[in-house]
Design goal:
- There is one protein chain.
- This protein is α+β, with helices and mostly antiparallel strands.
- It has a domain of 45 residues.
- Helix 1 packs across helix 3.
- The chain is elongated, with a radius of gyration of 25 Å.
- 1% of the residues are buried.
Length: 95
């Protein structure tokens, strides 16, 4: 009778960070997905699930953009006004 203990052995649980690294390694390489998953010891289905989960969470994560000052600041201080939505305005003044 053939030994099937390895075939049905549970794979280790991986953290979100570990899956992120696995996906980054795949994206950086040129191996086929099936070969890559086999060498990493992960299932193709699990790879697709985690890649989708991580892309979805990245898409909904807040993003920051760098803003350049539209004019040189005055020698005495600065004024910043941010409209945050729903009628909320944040005003910062110095001087």
């Amino acid at each position: 009778m053939p030994d099937t203990s390895q075939k049905h052995a549970r794979r280790p649980r991986r953290s979100r960070a570990e899956w992120s690294q696995i996906i980054e390694r795949f994206d950086a390489g040129n191996e086929s997905l099936a070969d890559f998953c086999r060498s990493e010891g992960v299932g193709v289905g699990s790879f697709y699930q985690w890649r989708n989960k991580l892309q979805t969470s990245l898409a909904s994560a807040p993003r920051f953009i760098e803003l350049a000052a539209p004019f040189a600041s005055s020698p005495g201080g600065w004024q910043v006004e941010l409209e945050l939505g729903d009628g909320v305005v944040l005003r910062l003044r110095r001087g």
